[in-house]
Amino acid sequence: MPAPVFIGDEISAAGYRLAGLEVHSPSDEELPALFRRVRESAELILLDVEYAHRLPQAEVRAAVRALHPRLLIVPDIRGQHRMRDMFQRVRGQLGVNL
To answer: Which residue ranges of the chain lie beneath pLDDT 50?
Structure first.
């Protein structure tokens, strides 16, 4: 089984590398091709939210919905890019205002 893959900044990549993941910190030009290539071979992809913003959003949404490979968007280490708040999103879709 191939190792999980992390795509993101170099600082986070160092930690994920120590945990045994295959890591990539591509340039903006390299990112789309790398993302597509990794989707063909990986079982699990961890994508830094900053890098997710650099990809076409339709492509990221399709990858998140796909059953294989599993794609998880992870927070960026600097906290410069907000993650979507899943709790608020689900409440909004259900029409529940707490």
So the answer is: 93
How many alpha carbons fall within 13 Å on the CB side of residue 54? 20
Q: Is the dihedral of CA 55, 57, 62, 67 positive or negative?
A: positive
| Cα-based torsion angle of the residue sequence 57, 82, 43, 28 in order, rounded to the nearest 10 degrees | 60
CA 25 to chain centre: 12
Cite the DSSP H helix spans in 1-98: 10-18, 31-41, 49-54, 57-65, 86-94
Q: pLDDT for 41-64, tens place per residue?
A: 999 999 999 999 999 999 999 998
Distance CA 71, CA 62 (A): 10
Q: How many CB atoms lie within 10 A of CB 26?
A: 15
CA 96 from centre of chain:
28
